[in-house]
Every structure is written in C-alpha cells, then in structure tokens.
Amino acid sequence: MEGLERILKEHAFFAGFPEDQIALVAGCARNHRFDAGQYLFREGEPANEFFLIRHGKVALDIASPGQPPIVMSTLEPGEIVGASWLVPPYRWTFDARAVELVRAIGIDAACLRGKCETDHHLGYEMMKRFAPILVKRLHATRLQVLNVYGKR
User: Fold this and answer.
1) Disulfide-capable partner of 84 in 24, 40, 47, 52 (CB 3.0 to 4.6 Å)?
2) Domain of 62?
C-alpha cells in the first residue's frame, strides 16, 4: 500500500492532500494497465472506478448510431478519467479508450464513496478537486459545440 500512497501523493490531483486522507484513498486504489485500443470503460456500464493517468493518453469518445465515434477530449498523464462515479445512477456517459499504452491508478468508487460518507472532510476535499475538472470539461465541450454548430 505504501507504493500506492507515494504515487497518489505525487499525482497532481492529490497535491496538498492531507496525509491521513491519502492513506484512506490508497486503501481503495489499484494499478491498471491498458493496451492501445483497449477500453477503460464503455458508455452505459456501471461507473465503479475512476482513473488517475500516470502514463499514456486516453480518448473520451461519444458514440453516435451509424457514425464513427467522436473524440470529445484526449487526456494525458496527470489527468483524471471519469466523474460519473460521483452521481447516481453511477453509469458512464461516454467511452474511455487507451490511445496508446496507459498506466493508471484506479480508485474503487464504492469504496471511496463509503469513506467520503464516513469522513465528510475527505468528501469535501474530493468535491473541491472534481468540481474544477467538471467545469473545465463542460467548457471544452461548449467550445466544441460552438465550433461544430456555430458556423452559419
């Protein structure tokens, strides 16, 4: 577990995170490896985990019937993949696909939600860190929509 705690401390998302809370999160963490083309998760599946990218790139895709997937965003090392674990019904609303070899830390969502429910300080820290990510991604999506549909 000590190795995962060290990795979490070094990840940008957890910069300045209290030591005792890092230990709580590490108890929900595990290493992952995804080969190029492999999906971290698919739209509609249960959002049981979110990922801290350590190496590689992950494409966030939206599927459209009869069309190739649309890449909404490409995430790189230091970024987080997945926020659907935060909000019921805890289902993914897009696909996440490894563009190249990806090494990531997965955080078990049910485990972390339980710890956040028990320790509201932990829950507040997590929400403070996820809120800017959500705002940034909504803004990026807005710009993409304007780019696609704003031309007249």
Assistant:
1) 47
2) 2-149
Using CA atoms in the order 5, 25, 78, 102, what is the torsion angle rounded to 10 degrees? Answer: 90
How many structural domains is the chain composed of?
Answer: 1
Preceding omega of 89 cis (within 30 degrees of 0) = yes
**Around 39, how many Cα atoms within 13 Å sit in the side-chain half-sphere?**
11
For the whole model, what pTM was predicted? 0.86
Cα–Cα separations (whole angstroms), residue 52 to 12, 47, 75, 126: 9, 14, 10, 13
Helix (H, G, I), strand (E, B) or coil at 95: strand
Residue-wise pLDDT for 21-70, tens only, equals 999 999 999 999 999 999 999 999 999 999 999 999 999 998 878 888 88
CATH number, residue 85 = 2.60.120.10
Rounded CA separation 108/85 (Å): 9
Written as six digits, the tokens of 4 are 């995962």
Coil, helix or strand for 58?
strand
Ramachandran angles phi, psi of 10, nearest 5°: -80, -15
